Amino acid sequence: MTRTAACFLIAASCVFVSAASGQRVAGIDSDGDGLSDALEARLIEQFRPVWMVSENDCSKVPARFVPDASVPRVGADDGTIYAQASPGGRAGEVEIHYYHLWRRDCGEMGHALDTEHVAVLLRSDGESWKASAWYAAAHEDTVCDAGQVTRASTIDAVDHGARVWVSAGKHASYFAERLCNYGCGGDRCVHMHELPAGDLINLGEANVPSVAWTHAPQWPLLEKMTRSDFTVARMSRLERLPETDIAWATPEKRPAQAAILGVNAGLGGAGLGASTGARGTNTAMVVTTDKTGHALGSAARHTGGALKKSYRGVRRALGGRSAND
Asked: Record's superkingdom (predicted)?
């Protein structure tokens, strides 16, 4: 994502030409991305997700990291969430990433440090900001990638943050609790409770970070900060699906994941009934119109049984993954 801004000194403050909207926004812009600090702070707080975490997680809650350490070093396990607000790809758009960073991944193939996130795409009508789409990362950039993308209206998160379930130990993010069963065999959302709202820290931009450890090679945070989660291809595919659908972000990986788990029916399109073709491949879940039910049908039970039989296959699949995903 490219960011540009012009700053003119006026009475000890700056007036910015916003890369997001082309409008002049008064105030300080510490990271030079064209969005004032005040606007970023307001949007980051308004769309803060509600996090559901597991009581069984050995890492307990997301961690706060020592800000001036060049190597990520945990200062406290206190539920701190980090955020990054950037101009979107089109005028009038802002993309916010919310990072839940953990002391360790304590699931299968565990490792020190864990870098996970969700994202929201906001659009302005000139008076207010509304969420148009949400993205949840789950084993991002691996064969087991189970990330999801959805319209904000589908999950009732247009004016506020989405509710996000974080799998125990592995910390994959899901927009529905039962979607945890549709990862690659290692995810469970059990004994969940709402994470109390803690500190929310603005990371700034990759080239002007507010902390020292964004570029650390010990984790893939820099890569996540420098790309959009709402690509043209991903959004075009979502727009072709019904408004009830939560879509897979990388549907092309679902056949390989089904093979790993040994299930002939595959993992995509659960609960679609007679639906076939592109929708069955792309859709992770169909949300009912009252936003309270999920049409997963009996496929969840069959997949759950298959997971128990696929331990060795999952370990082999995860063996080549990045150390900190």
From this structure: Bacteria
- The backbone region for 273, taken as left when phi is positive above 0, alpha when psi lies in -120 to 50, beta otherwise, is left
- Identify the pLDDT of residue 277: 55
CA separation for the pair 30, 36 (Å, rounded): 8
pLDDT at residue number 278: 64
**Alpha-helical regions (H) of 165-268:** 221-225, 232-239, 254-261
Cβ proximity of 161 and 96 under 8 Å: no
Region 308-316: mean pLDDT is 43
In a domain, 325, yes or no: no
Q: Does residue 26 lie within any of the structural domains?
A: no
pLDDT > 80? residue 60: yes
- Look up residue 219 and give its two tokens: 């984790």
pLDDT at 281: 82
Overall domain count for the chain: 1
Q: How many residues are recorded in the chain?
A: 325
Neighbours of 67 (CB within 10 A): 13
Residue 161 DSSP code: P
CA distance 192 to 212: 33
Residue 15 lies in a domain: no
Position 9 in a domain:
no
Query: In this structure, what is the dihedral angle of CA atoms 53, 57, 59, 62, given to the nearest 10 degrees?
Result: 0
* Tens digits of residue pLDDT in 4-18: 333 322 222 343 334
**Vertex 42 angle, CA 98 and 17, to 5°:** 100
Range of the domain at 269: 38-318
Average pLDDT, the chain: 81
CA terminus-to-terminus distance, the chain: 22
Q: How far apart are alpha carbons 99 and 51 in whole angstroms?
A: 11
- Close Cβ partners of 19 (under 8 Å, ≥ 6 residues apart): 2, 3, 4, 5, 33, 34, 35, 87
Q: Which two tokens stand for residue 71?
A: 């190597």
- Residues 232 and 21: their CA atoms lie apart, in Å, by 19
